[in-house]
Amino acid sequence: MRRLLVLGLPLIACIASLALAEDDTAKAAATRKLLKQKVTVEYKDAAFREVVDDLKEQIGKGLSIKPDTKSGVQLNTKITLAMKDAPLEDVLNAICDKNGWGYFIKSKEKDAYDGQLVVKVGKERGYEEGKEPAAKDDKDKVKAKAKDKKEAKDKGNSDEKAEPKPKAEPKDRPADDEERNERAAALKLKTAKELVADDKKDRAIQVLEDLLKKYPNAKVAEEAKELLNKLKE
Questions:
Q1: How remote is the C-alpha of 87 from its chain's centroid?
Q2: pTM of the prediction?
Q3: CA-to-CA separations, 215 to 113, 180, 212, in angstroms, rounded
Q4: What is the mean pLDDT of residues 10-26?
Q5: Where are the domains of the chain?
Q6: pLDDT digits over 19-49, tens only?
């Protein structure tokens, strides 16, 4: 029995480390909450530095935005965008989609920039590349598999063969996640149409392909597919 307990400890530690790896620092978690705060913007050829100042003013104390100029983000990039009562993350997504940028929240204890929102050239959306949290369904599968292995070891000395446990059914995604996905997909479609109007066909194609890859079941997916096919003709 003691031997089985010792063998199970590394497995339990592994599961715990997976959970901890996905936790934000307190400052990063606070900044991530600000992404849900609603703002109203109406920019017409506004310099990105002015956009940053406006968003910080609307959100208030606690939001620090750092444009990473070394990665290629230009502070004088002209931004044209109008959105009313939209979550900050939707506004950032629209700006980044149109300029080939990404953004992430720095999450590192004892770091002077912990909790800072960094805007850079890339495809990040909230998390640094390679540090995105595992999908909830994947986490459920890992836990279910670990539980099955532990129970099989506990019954290892029994003559009776352990029956395989049924796989845990993935839980339905919360309704608010579905709504957010629909909103994000609609925003990407709108951005693509604006790019077409600005004669930026190649960039519009990229945005539409990204939309169909991330949100294939969205209500606007069919319209996006038709527009994409038309642009590729």
A1: 14
A2: 0.52
A3: 32, 11, 5
A4: 55
A5: 2-22+134-154, 26-126, 175-232
A6: 433 578 999 999 999 999 999 999 999 999 9
